[in-house]
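Ticket closed. Logging final result for 2-iminobutanoate/2-iminopropanoate deaminase.
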Amino acid sequence: MKQIINTVNAPAAIGPYSQANLANGVLYISGQIPVDPATGKLVEGIEKETHQVMKNLEAILTEAGLTFKNVVKATIFLKSMDDFAVMNDIYASYLDADSYPARETVQVSCLPKNVDIEISMIAHQD
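Final structure:
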């Protein structure tokens, strides 16, 4: 059975998708962009954007009763690989070094709302 996960502590979906779906103990989190859920506005600059995306992901994980330790896979989309080092340091600061998820990072030509970063995750209940 699929359970839709939704929280006001992360940006509302802006299309025909859910923030996340929980199915058979696996949480599939839709790509998060740097929208501040309190204001509905985008934050700017790769540092602030990465922090906001990670906070949005954390809010969805929390709503599902999970943490970043439960994340098994992350997909990161960057508009520029020049932002990789800054993003990577901030991303790592939210994770436990003993439980890093699998991951890929790809450069793309454009992202929704022309942001610099989008991250999706898959997490598993223990």
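Helices lie at 46-63, 84-93. No further action required.
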